[in-house]
Backbone:
């Protein structure tokens, strides 16, 4: 099984969503389930990193919203998401947050094609 997670908050930010995704990721690692996490880039880190043999993180440049300067919002190009998903071929797509990255996946140009291609409502 392969799972793609789309989130606007991930480590190094610390909150309930990041803690839950971290624990879930560790559990899925133990079950040898492949995961790709699409998340904002926080500092000058690489665009992608590997947390385990089964979990890879794809980072996208973002900005800090005025109301929460520790947070980041990223709006990657549709084609970047499509290309990575086409190569990964996830069985499940989980949109964790509905802003930024989650919004790019669920709406806008190509959203119906993505829903048809990856079988999510």
Residues:
């Amino acid at each position: 099984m392969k799972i793609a997670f789309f989130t606007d908050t991930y480590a190094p930010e610390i909150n309930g969503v990041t803690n839950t995704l971290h624990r879930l990721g560790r559990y899925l690692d133990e079950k040898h389930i492949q995961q790709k996490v699409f998340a904002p880039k926080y500092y000058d880190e690489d665009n992608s990193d590997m947390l385990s043999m089964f979990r890879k993180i794809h980072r996208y440049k973002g900005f800090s919203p005025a109301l929460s300067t520790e947070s980041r919002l990223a709006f990657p190009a549709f084609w970047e998401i499509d290309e990575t998903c086409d190569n990964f071929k996830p069985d499940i797509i989980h949109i964790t947050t509905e802003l930024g990255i989650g919004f790019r996946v669920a709406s806008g140009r190509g959203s119906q094609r993505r829903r048809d291609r990856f079988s999510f409502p």
